[in-house]
UniProtKB/TrEMBL annotation:
InterPro entries: ClpP/crotonase-like_dom_sf (IPR029045), Enoyl-CoA_hydra/iso (IPR001753), Enoyl-CoA_hydra_C (IPR014748)
Gene3D superfamilies to which the protein is assigned, alphabetical: 2-enoyl-CoA Hydratase, Chain A, domain 1 (3.90.226.10), Lyase 2-enoyl-coa Hydratase, Chain A, domain 2 (1.10.12.10)
Species assigned in the record: Streptomyces coerulescens
Protein name: Enoyl-CoA hydratase-related protein
Similarity remark: Belongs to the enoyl-CoA hydratase/isomerase family.
Residue ranges of coiled coil: none
Length: 274
């Protein structure tokens, strides 16, 4: 494990999988600016680490993330120009969506408000039987924040998204699985272990380059037409056929052996300060 137990997000390497744990269990891992900075910095590091091929995110204790810390929310109405300028300099809140590598959620308890948004930023979500979801936004006088009004209807449908956003009602694990908030429900055992096993399978069997491209297609094609999607896919397929990953993938299948795909190239230059 990397770091110390008192860090706001704890990083643990499990082979090619990096496990990131929100670590404010006494507060159900309520979100703070400091926790966000630590989480995003670790995602940045994972992006450029060739030994990390997938990331699992979870929460310590009984919760995934209970949303924004209410003490910080209390101060929002008193925000002065200096604090507003500081927030403007921060990275976009939806930064996890830009990660090229698979981001797998292991929802071990309540995911509320901003915590639910962060769970929806994951590519795939595993949940324990104690997983719970609530938007809670209207109950706090807030609005559908940070893209949840775009993400949620695409997962559960317009009418259900409207229900969840307006009412802020609590959704239990079984309903979450049924309507699409969860992709996998872990009725027994450790939800983190199940998510790590899935992520490790992606890391060892799938091309990092292919997965990064597919994630990009899903994001781009969501706002376009079917014809646009087909046209882009044809261009990307030609690029894939010219690459080494197709050769390796086919050879590994025919030779009945694990593939040896290369890692993604870094996105940040080592000589450029970040």
């Amino acid at each position: 494990m990397t770091g110390t137990p008192d860090e706001l997000v704890v990083a643990e390497h499990r082979g090619p999988v990096l496990v990131l744990t929100f670590n404010r269990p006494a507060k159900l891992n309520a979100w703070t600016d400091e926790l966000e900075d630590r989480y995003f910095a670790l995602l940045d590091d994972a992006e450029d680490d060739p030994d990390v091929r997938a990331v699992v995110v979870t929460g310590a204790g009984r919760g995934f993330c209970a949303g924004a810390d209410l003490q910080q929310l209390k101060a929002v109405g008193e925000m002065d120009e200096a604090l507003a300028a500081d927030r403007a300099r921060r990275r976009p809140r939806d930064m996890p969506l830009t990660l090229r590598k698979p981001l797998i959620g292991a929802v071990n308890g309540v995911a509320a408000g901003l915590g639910m948004v962060e769970a929806l930023y994951c590519d795939v979500r595993f949940g324990s039987t104690s997983a719970r979801f609530t938007t809670a936004l209207a109950q706090r006088g807030l609005i559908a924040e940070y893209g949840i009004s775009w993400l949620l209807p695409r997962l559960v449908g317009h009418s259900r998204a409207t229900d969840l956003l307006l009412s802020g009602r609590m959704v239990d694990a079984e309903e979450a699985l049924r309507i699409g908030l969860l992709d996998h429900l872990v009725p027994t055992g450790n939800v983190v272990d199940a998510a790590v096993a899935y992520a490790a399978d992606l890391a060892t069997r799938c091309s990092p380059g292919s997965m990064a491209t597919i994630k990009g297609q899903l994001h781009t094609d969501a706002g376009g037409t079917y014809a646009d999607s087909v046209a882009r896919a044809e261009s990307l397929m030609l690029q894939a056929f010219r690459g080494a990953d197709v050769v390796e993938g086919v050879a590994a299948h025919l030779e009945k052996r694990p593939p040896n795909f290369p890692s993604l190239p870094p996105v940040r230059s080592a000589d450029v300060p970040v």
